[in-house]
Specification:
heterodimer; A: 178 residues; five-stranded mixed β-sheet; two-stranded antiparallel sheet; B: mainly alpha; 5 helices
């Protein structure tokens, strides 16, 4: 009896360990950001649509915002643009853009042609701000709460699904609670 | 005119060497050779987050170049290797480190080989002990050769 019980036990233990490993990997191919639950990085960057003006992260404190990293060179960003416009129309949470390593004139053209969903767009010409946010591929979207804490991150194009399932409930639950 | 084979070989080898540096992704040269060695070691053990199976040193993408710039600037500013690694991991997670750090969360992973070895040693010790014990009681004569 013992002869079979021991290997069976070992097998079950291994199966449990592997199952936990598989179920706990959140989204395949997406790397969890260590910034989740931590304060959003501070920055002070030129504004795309107001040359000579700076956008400071301190100005954003005290309210929810979606921080969207994009660039005209990024095809996925073009794909998610319609969703961003819908988010803007919903009027629940303002969009702050980070134009990552891009050409300013091209970026302005892009927004004039497709519509500008952003309340403000910060220009990250050197790519340093994106590194501070742990960005590894545009588009990436962060949800920041009024305390300045990153509560959610989405890698890849924003979809209607992510908006209604992952972002909207977080913001409206907070609004209902306060 | 005949060129000796050795000369041809030397020239070809020289061309190959030059080509090698031209192919390198990262042309960075730091003023101090010791710093350059640390820079090279660090960029080889940090992951390019975009390509994921390449190191920063080998990756031609722009993000890798930006992260190499960070490594270079931080080394020139006198930061230690550990500080640079911690800075990277604070932004991109432990995933950026090709050489995983020891932490309480992954302690069981580091400990697993030792534990498994211990279990194996215990099992084989028990088997050996049981068989040695049997040896003393077994005084039956060896089986005779089967009839041919």
């Amino acid at each position: 009896m013992n002869r079979f019980l021991l290997p069976l036990g070992a097998f079950l233990l291994l199966a449990v360990v592997l199952a936990v490993g598989i179920w706990h990997s959140p989204q395949k191919g997406v790397i969890a950001s260590p910034l989740l639950g931590r304060p959003a990085p501070q920055f002070s960057l030129p504004e795309l649509n107001h040359p000579g003006r700076q956008l400071h992260s301190a100005q954003l404190k005290g309210r929810w915002y979606l921080f969207n990293v994009w660039g005209t060179w990024c095809t996925e960003c073009r794909a998610e643009h319609a969703v961003l416009l819908k988010v803007q129309q919903a009027g629940v949470v303002p969009l702050i853009g980070l134009d990552w390593k891009d050409d300013d004139a091209q970026a302005r053209d892009f927004l004039t042609q497709l519509g500008n969903p952003y309340q403000a767009v910060a220009v990250d010409a050197s790519g340093r701000a994106a590194i501070e946010w742990g960005v590894y591929g545009a588009p990436e979207t962060f949800l920041v709460n009024p305390q300045g804490i990153i509560v959610y991150k989405h890698v890849g194009a924003l979809t209607d699904d992510t908006w209604t399932r992952d972002i909207l409930p977080r913001v409206s639950a907070a609004a209902a609670g306060s | 005119m005949r060129v000796p084979l050795v000369v041809v070989a030397v020239v070809m080898l020289a061309v190959l060497c030059v080509a090698g540096t031209a192919w390198a992704v990262d042309p960075t040269e730091l003023p101090d050779p010791a710093l350059q060695a640390r820079y090279s070691a660090l960029t080889h053990e940090l992951r390019c987050m975009q390509c994921q199976n390449e190191s920063l040193a080998d990756s031609p993408v722009e993000l890798a170049a930006d992260l190499r710039r960070e490594v270079r600037e931080q080394l020139l500013a006198g930061k230690s290797d550990a500080q640079v690694r911690a800075w990277m991991a604070a932004r991109y997670g432990d995933f950026i480190l090709f050489r995983p750090r020891y932490s309480w969360r992954n302690a069981w992973l580091w400990g697993a080989p030792a534990v498994l070895l211990l279990i194996g040693a215990m099992v084989s010790w028990r088997i050996v002990r049981e068989r040695t014990a049997l040896l003393g009681t077994d005084d039956a004569p060896l089986e005779e050769d089967p009839p041919r």
